[in-house]
Design goal:
Elements: E1 5-11, E2 24-25, H1 31-42, H2 53-63, E3 70-71, E4 77-81, E5 84-94, E6 97-105, H3 114-128, E7 133-139, H4 143-152, E8 155-160
Parallel strand pairs: 6-7
Antiparallel strand pairs: 1-7, 1-8, 2-4, 3-5, 4-5, 5-6
Length: 162
């Protein structure tokens, strides 16, 4: 099933933080734990299509490879609690610009600002590296995510899929 998505764009500028958490860069070795987080974060949402953990691990392995452009480890971050990822923001270089390939937060940690924090962390790193713009796709109906992106300054530039 293909969902309609909005392509959004942000002109990069330094971000300030109201909250912060210890985070670290994502590495390809994180694919299994991120696959598990992907299923847990998306289950019951408009973006969930019944993927198994095995399928999600395969998808994360692809993202950390070159499935959606070159993985950018220096601007991709995760927050862990007791060694387990609870939130992650993965950036790839896609069609000549950085792309938020996936951002996810475990349901037990939603509403605490982790996703916004990780986005700001990635934005600041990309801006410091000299990138001008950042893109993402948000599924129509994922109003909570779209609201966060708009608060960060993202604007809709196109509609795709459907």
């Amino acid at each position: 099933m293909t969902h309609q998505r909005h392509k959004m764009k942000l002109r990069l500028a330094e971000q300030t933080f109201s909250k912060s958490w210890p985070c670290r860069p994502i590495s390809p070795a994180d694919a299994p734990a991120l696959g598990q987080l992907l299923v847990e974060a998306y289950r019951g949402t408009v973006d969930y299509e019944g993927e198994t953990v095995e399928q999600a691990i395969e998808e994360m392995t692809g993202m950390l490879g070159s499935k959606y452009g070159d993985f950018m480890p220096s601007s991709s971050f995760l927050v862990e609690v007791e060694g387990q990822p609870v939130a992650a923001c993965l950036i790839t270089f896609w069609q000549e610009a950085p792309l938020v390939t996936v951002i996810m937060t475990h349901p037990s940690y939603k509403g605490q600002g982790l996703g916004t924090f990780l986005m700001r962390q990635s934005i600041n790193t990309l801006h410091a590296q000299g990138h001008q713009d950042l893109y993402l796709f948000v599924t129509v109906g994922n109003d909570d995510a779209r609201h966060i992106y708009e608060k960060l300054g993202f604007v809709v530039v196109d509609k795709v899929g459907g």
